[in-house]
Amino acid sequence: MLSCSLSSLTTDNRTNINYTNLSNCYTDIFPLNPNNLEQDKTAKHRLISKVLSPALWLFVRSQVEQVSHLEVQIASSDRQILSGSIPRLSISGDRIVYKGLHFAKICLMGEGMQTNLRQVMRGQPLQLLEPMVVSGEAMLQETDLNASLKSDLLSSALTELLSKLASSNSAVRGPIDWKQIAIAPGSLLLQGNLVNSSHTTPITLRCGLQLSSGRKLLLTQPQLQISNSWEELENYVMDLGSHVNLKELTLEPGQIVCRGSITVMP
Fold first, then answer.
1. How many domains, in total, are found in the chain?
2. Residues near 175 by beta carbon (within 8 Å), at least 6 away in sequence
3. Does 136 reside within a domain?
4. What pLDDT does residue 161 have?
């Protein structure tokens, strides 16, 4: 098995890497007969380090808006590499922003990745050809969640969640400007303002959070405060979808740690 680490390829020098440059690297490695790859193991190792690993790095980097450090490692046999198959891929990153969501750290392991390697050799972007299971760990700090409140993805999800939790409360209508999330052991505290045309109303949601199953989260003993009045709400199960399989969800003071897997589609 061969592997290559791209710990040196961080956001500071990513602008020097593109698929055209990778195609040129391939030409330098195999200048005479690129069809006889099996005859040169040294060249194949150089193929990983100069073409395939940077292509994977570009692919992963293109999926996120921001990352302070990104490392990609691959392990594959000679024959698998030449067919575009990567049995194992590991990714680690710090200070990642994905669709407006902030993560302090991620460590992921992908299995069964099928790629268009020969097209990459011709300067084309790397593509995922088949669904791939990715497992690992993600850490969300309290500061990450509060920064993520600026994203439509999280703020809209929280507003929709509250509308389902408090569906019988006519006061919970209209947009909500979410201001803060606090993480305590096993529980969350969310604060914001209900916004209408004439005024804003402070709102607080407090609930426990735990795994119900691999794809479902359970919100326990939710309580809603509007102005100075508290209301007890019913427990609520949130389905994350069939592509998610969580093994562990831990709420610690100031951070959330989750472990599990997700199926990534092409």
1. 2
2. 159, 194, 195
3. no
4. 92
The answer to the question of residue 240 being in a domain is yes
Verify that 171 and 115 share a domain, yes or no: no
Do 106 and 223 belong to one domain?
no
113-127 burial, b at 16+ Cβ within 10 Å, e below that, comes to bbbbbebbbeeeebe
Map tokens 């920064």 to a residue.
147
Tokens of 199: 């005024």
On whether both 95 and 183 belong to a single domain, the answer is no
Residue 97: per-residue pLDDT? 92
pLDDT interval class at 5 (50, 70, 90): very low
Alpha-carbon distance of 108 to 114, in angstroms, equals 17
Report how far residue 207's alpha carbon sits from residue 127's, in angstroms, rounded to the nearest whole number.
Answer: 41
| Residue 58 belongs to domain spanning | 2-130
Confirm if 82 and 116 have CB atoms less than 8 A apart. no
Strand partners, 239: 216
For the entire predicted model, the pTM comes to 0.76
Taking only the tens place, the pLDDT of each residue in 147-166 is: 999 999 999 999 999 989 98
pLDDT of amino acid 61: 82
